[in-house]
Design brief:
Layout (H helix, E strand, L loop, with lengths): L9 E5 L7 H11 L3 E7 L3 H9 L19 E5 L11 H4 L12 H12 L2 E6 L16 H22 L3 E11 L14 H23 L2 E7 L5 H4 L4 H11 L8 H11 L11 E4 L18
Parallel strand pairs: 1-2, 1-4, 2-3, 4-5, 5-6, 6-7
Helix pairs in contact: 1-9, 5-6
Length: about 300
């Protein structure tokens, strides 16, 4: 029987802050396939995430198919906006949510992983943030726009640049994007649509560069609308989910498991010939040219 086998592989999944997002779903499916899971959690929520995990708040979501619980080999605090400690402003260093943390910049986290585990085989980037997400692009400030690009796009470039030297040929890197990179989605503002477009362009360029230099495959998943914590910040995610159900060819909402299964495939040897691809997991919504539930089509 053909199956996904990631036994003996180590995955670093960056961007897990709870059990509701794509990062969690991907980590769970990679673990189902046998991979060892390292987690990068956004530094300001690191302690809350650890506490919730220790208190058993995620136990139901941690259930694997064999009855065991999803276990994380190690959880690192990380703020992927900063490459080195010198990049961190003094007010952030002194912030109470950062002050007691060590090694939360990208370079230090990867150095720590190398010292503890030697290498990784899979890198998953599940990060996105736009401080002005609810503002139309015409009202987005330069600072807000650049912040969206930095945390949602360049963070993948930097993570891969720092990870690639400890990834062997045949390893895989993966990021999460959204159809707003290709289509106008009113309300998806703050420069986030631009950041997703940059992320997809970077996926192609990184596939070339990391492929030739390190033998690493680089892909992206364009996931359909789902009620993640990040998506809820937009303010109309439930309406987008209903729109997807009404207008996609398969007439249903995407599930976390579907995204997780696709990620496990793309990170496995079964996808050894696939790189530079943005793969839509959205029940086919991206192919549609009209909204079939539009009142303008009613007869």
């Amino acid at each position: 029987m053909l199956s996904i086998n990631l036994r003996g592989k180590t995955a670093f999944v960056v961007g897990i802050g709870d059990d509701k997002g794509f990062g969690w779903a991907i980590a769970k499916m990679l673990a189902e396939a046998g991979a060892k899971i390292l987690v990068g959690t956004w530094a300001p929520v690191y302690k809350i995430f650890l506490m919730s995990l220790e208190q058993g708040k995620f136990d139901e979501s941690r259930q694997l198919s064999d009855g065991s619980l999803l276990n994380f080999e190690k959880i690192y605090p990380i703020d992927a906006v900063y490459d080195t400690l010198d990049d961190v402003p003094e007010d952030i260093k002194e912030n109470k949510r950062y002050k007691d943390l060590d090694g939360y910049v990208i370079a230090d986290v990867l150095k720590s992983i190398q010292q503890s585990y030697g290498s990784i085989d899979i890198l998953v980037h599940s990060l996105a943030n736009a401080p002005e997400i609810q503002k139309p692009l015409l009202e987005t400030s330069r600072k807000g726009y650049l912040a969206a690009i930095s945390s949602s796009s360049y963070s993948f470039v930097s993570l891969l640049a720092h990870s690639a030297p400890i990834m062997s040929p045949g390893s895989a890197a993966l990021s999460l994007t959204y159809i707003a990179s290709e289509r106008a989605i009113p309300g998806y503002g703050g420069g986030m649509s631009s950041a997703k477009a940059a992320l997809e362009s970077d996926t192609r360029v990184l596939a070339w560069e990391a492929g030739r230099r390190y033998g690493i495959r680089v892909n992206a998943i364009s996931a359909g609308a789902a009620s993640t914590r990040a998506a809820r910040a937009i303010g109309f995610i439930e309406e987008m989910i209903q729109y997807s159900i009404a207008n996609s060819p398969l007439a249903k909402a995407v599930t976390m498991e579907e995204v997780g299964h696709t990620a496990a495939f793309l990170c496995s040897p079964l996808a050894s010939g696939i790189t530079g691809v943005t793969l839509h997991v959205d029940q086919g919504l991206h192919i549609m040219g009209i909204a079939v539930d539009s009142p303008s089509l009613a007869k």
